[in-house]
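Write out the 3D structure for:
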Amino acid sequence: MLFIRGWQQEVKRIEEIQDSGKVWCKGSSRPVHAVRVGNKIFATGKEEGQSIECRVDGDMLCVDLHEPERKVRVARKTPLDLEPTLQGTLFSGFTQTKHADVLIVSSDHDRIEEEIISGH
């Protein structure tokens, strides 16, 4: 909380992506790409052959997946308040995060907005 001339104003904490790498989800046959925002790990849905750009915009994680050979882009907006539902462990990457078993926010949650653009 911040007090300015007798008025109480709530200061919203600005989140950013702190780290990225691969996580191994329990029951999965291979590791998947993920990012850490605050204390949460978010699976991004990145597949082989795709490039990725991620950023935080307000209360959303924005993921832009680009597959140049097929000329397909996938844009996803994931609410940062989603609860993690997958169990897993950090696999590789994540140079700023201590190796541990983690809970992961799935990339296919029904509150994730997705738009697919072909021909770009």
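Residues 6-12 have pLDDT under 50 and may be disordered.
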